[in-house]
Amino acid sequence: QVQLVESGGRLVQPGESLRLSCTGSGLNFSTSHMSWWRQAPDKELEMVAYMTKASIGSHITIPSSARGRFTISRDNGKNILYLQMDRLNTGDTAVYLCKAETDRFQTAWGRGTQVTVST
User: What span, in angstroms and rounded, lies between the C-alpha atoms of 95 and 105?
Assistant: First the structure.
């Protein structure tokens, strides 16, 4: 059974940085497409970072809302996915979720971690 657990979310001030982690079990990160999404109140679910599986190059996609501020990376040996977020602003306040699309055609989501950017 694939399980994903996010951590690292907390209250920060505008301009600060934060690194989120997603620890997985029951899957191989290197053979899975991994991504970060966020859900803000009264807004649609939004993808903020995407990394393809290693066998096709670990290509990264960052949407314009996060480009230049967010970085996705992973430690395949530890099955951990990271999201480094810099220069945070109030618009980044949301629940951040990790998603895996495995080589067995399974899709799994974590429960999310809350990030609040506020003075």
Answer: 25
CB 75, CB 83: distance < 8 Å: no
Digit-coded pLDDT (tens) for 11-69: 999 999 999 999 999 998 889 999 999 999 999 999 999 999 988 888 999 999 999 99
- DSSP at 92: G
As given in the structure block, the two tokens for residue 1 are: 């059974």
Q: What is the CA radius of gyration of the chain?
A: 14
Residue 88: exposure state from Cβ atoms within 10 A (0-12, 13-18, ≥19): buried
Residue 29 pLDDT: 87
Instruction: Yes or no: say if 112 and 21 are a contact pair by the CB < 8 Å rule.
Output: no
Report d(CA 51, CA 46) in Å as an integer.
15
The mean per-residue pLDDT over the stretch 64-91 comes to 95
